Amino acid sequence: MEVIFSNYSILIVDDNEINVMLLQVILEEERFHIYAAASAEEALAILDKNRIDLILMDVMMPEVSGFELTEKLKSTEKLRDIPILFITALNSPNDIIKGFDLGACDYVTKPFNQLELVRRIKHQISLIHSRNIIIEQKDRLKETMESRDLLYSIVSHDLRSPISSLKMILNILSSKAEENQLPAELVDMLYSGSDIAEQLFCLLDNLLKWTKSNMGIQTSMSQAFMFDETITGVIEVLLPTAKLKDVAIHLQLQHNIEILFDVDVMKSILRNLIINAIKFSHQSGNILINLYADDKWAVFEVTDHGVGMSIVTQDRLRAKIYGTYSLGTAREGGTGLGLWIVQHFVTINHGEFYFRSKEGEGSCFGFKIPRISSDEQILY
C-alpha cells in the first residue's frame, strides 16, 4: 500500500518562526503540502478554508494555548477527526497525559530527532491513508449492496413472477390435455414444457434463498397452516414432471397436523425433496409420500424405489450436503442446492433432516419439525 505524501496537507501551529521554518523544510523534503499558523486564530482561519490531514501543535502559545486549541477542535464536528501531534518542550508526565486526554494522537518533545519525527508523521499519515481507503471501500460496498438489493428485487419479482405464471399456465394446459384427448405428442410436449418451467422456477428459487441466507438477508414470515394441504398443493404442481417418467405418486397423509413455518420456504423444501425422488426414480416407478405425527413432531418422508446410494455416496453427502449431486436416471442434471435448502431451513427452524438409502433399492429423505398441538394457541 503505497502512500503518496504529496496528496496530504499538514498544518504547523507554532508561534516560533524558526521552529516553523525548520519543520517546513523537513516536511517539504518529504513532499508534504505545508500550512503554517502562529496563533489559534490563524489556525482556525486556515482550517476553515483548506483540507488539513494532520496538525503539528505547539503547546506554549500566547492568548490561546495548544491544549486549549485542541480542546476547541475536538469539540467541533467538522474538525474533531483531524489527528493532532504535539511538538513541545513540555515533557512532564502530566503534560503528556493531558495532551492524550484531550485527543492527541502522538507526542514529540523538543528538541526532536528529525528522523524520529518524520517516521512518526509518516506513520500517522499512513493510518489516515488506510482509514480513507476503508471509507472508500465502505462507500463502494454500500453502492454494491444497493445494486444487489435492486437485482434481487428484479429477479424476485420481474423474473420469478413471470416464470411462476408460465409454470401455472403449462400445468393447467397439461391437466386439460388428456381430458380433451389431444395427440400424445402434444401432451408430451406440454408435460416437457411444464417440467422445464418447473426446473427454472426451482433453480431460481433455490439460488435466491441460498444467496440471501448466506448474506444474512433472508426474511422469514412464519404462519400456522395445515401441513397436508400444502403438501397436496405442491404435488399437484409437480404431476407433469412425474408423468414425464410415468412415475406414480402415492400419498399417506395424516390430516389435521398444523405447523408454524414460512409457507414459501416450506413449499421450496417439499418441491426439492419430491423432485429429487422423481429424478432418481426409474421409468414407471413409484414414490410414497408420508406425513404423520410423532409426539410433538410432524414427520414428512419421501420414499422412492430408484437407484439408491452407495455407502460412500451417503457418507459424502452427510459430510458435505452442498455441492454433492449426481445425474438422475434420465440424465437429469442439478446444482446440488436442493438438499442444502432442505437441511438448512429445516435445521434453523428447530427441525431435523435425515435420509436412508440402499444402493439399487431406493432412498428415503425426510425431516421432522415441531407441530402445533391441539392445546396450543397461536397469537397473531
Automatic annotation (TrEMBL):
Give GO terms: molecular function aspect only. phosphorelay sensor kinase activity
* This protein's record includes keyword Phosphoprotein: yes
Q: Using the record's annotation, list all stretches that form the Response regulatory domain.
A: 9-125
User: Which EC number(s) does UniProt give?
Assistant: 2.7.13.3
Under catalytic activity, the entry for this protein gives: ATP + protein L-histidine = ADP + protein N-phospho-L-histidine
User: What's one Pfam family the UniProt record gives for this protein?
Assistant: HATPase_c
- Which sequence positions carry the modification called 4-aspartylphosphate? 58
Chain ranges of the Histidine kinase domain: 154-373
InterPro entries (alphabetical): CheY-like_superfamily (IPR011006), HATPase_C_sf (IPR036890), HATPase_dom (IPR003594), His_kinase_dom (IPR005467), HisK_dim/P_dom (IPR003661), HisK_dim/P_sf (IPR036097), Sig_transdc_His_kin-like_C (IPR004358), Sig_transdc_resp-reg_receiver (IPR001789)
Tell me the domain of life: Bacteria
UniProt KW keywords:
Kinase, Phosphoprotein, Transferase
Protein name, UniProt field: histidine kinase
- Annotated source species: Sphingobacterium corticibacterium
Lineage, uppermost ranks = Bacteria, Pseudomonadati, Bacteroidota, Sphingobacteriia, Sphingobacteriales
